[in-house]
Amino acid sequence: MKNIVNEKRINKIITFLKSLKIKSKRFSEIIRTQNIPAIQNFNQALIHSSDSKTTNYEKLEFFGDAVLRLAASNFIEKKYPQMSVGERSELRAQIVSDEWLIKLGKKISIEKLIIKGPKALGDESSKDTVIGEATEALIGALYKCFDSIQEVNLWLDDFWEEDSEIFLKAPYKFKAKTVLQEWCQSKGLDLPIYKIIEVTKKNGDPKRFSCDIFIEGLKESSAFGKSHKQAETNAARVLIEKFITIGKI
Q1: Confidence at 175, pLDDT banded by 50, 70, 90
Q2: Is 218 exposed, middle or buried (CB count within 10 Å of its CB: 0-12, 13-18, 19+)?
Q3: 7-169 adopts what CATH topology?
């Protein structure tokens, strides 16, 4: 059974948990005593379904999704009490996004702890997705240790403090397609047309796809990306920045 964790694995998980630097006496006690039920919980959060169909991170990931949104709402309430509900929803969407989870997972080097089956090990295209999912499962496991979001906020608030300020200073960088669409509508123009070309077949290549944006038949910007979505977002961001520079926005 995957829930029977050997000593080597326990030591790896303990070292990893220490590296999170969560300032909580309860969390420190789990590390100090090497609490086995808690360790098993964290271990499960780090097992991909390709390794085990019965014991993997999927249920904790599902649980972590709700915990993450609640903890983020708690952070926004404390940090930005005057913010409107619409503004809160917009900010929360950024600080609980898949992209944000992947970024966090990479910061804490979670990939080193994830156990995968042979097929997933060789799948470079799913690497970032697995990192994001395991990170969300880790958040779910942390909540389950205490039935409380306290430790989740103690861990994540510092990340959110920095990332929310970055977003609020230049929100268009994170929702460029929406900003561009709204600008076109405000000017009575047709919606922008995105034309994608696959330049290479190489997974993960940052220039795999090229995107041109046309407005009213005129090509306004171009950019690359490793996916359709990223290429479109990058091209929209380039165009918004161009419009800001020349005073159109």
Answers
A1: confident
A2: exposed
A3: Ribonuclease iii, N-terminal Endonuclease Domain; Chain A (1.10.1520)
- Amino acid identity at 166: I
**3-class SS of residue 136:** helix
CA atoms within 13 A on the CB side of 235: 29
pLDDT at 121 over 80: no
CB 113, CB 12: distance < 8 Å: yes
pTM here is: 0.79
- Dihedral, 110, 111, 113, 115 alpha carbons, nearest 10: 140
Q: Look at the domain 176-245 and name its fold.
A: Double Stranded RNA Binding Domain (3.30.160)
Query: Which residue, among 175, 178, 188, has the nearest Cα to 215 in the 3D structure?
Result: 188
**Residue 2: is its pLDDT beyond 50?**
no
Any idea which residues carry the catalytic annotation?
A: 65, 136
For 109, 116, 147, the CA distances from 56, given in Å and listed in that order, are: 19, 10, 20
∠ Cα 247 248 249 (to 5°): 90
Grouping H, G, I as helix, E, B as strand and the rest as coil, residue 184 is helix
Q: Which residues of 138-158 are buried (b: 16+ CB within 10 A; e: fewer)?
A: bbbbbbbbeeebbbbbbbbbe
Residues ≥6 apart with Cβ < 8 Å to 189: 215, 216
Q: What mean pLDDT is predicted for residues 27-38?
A: 95
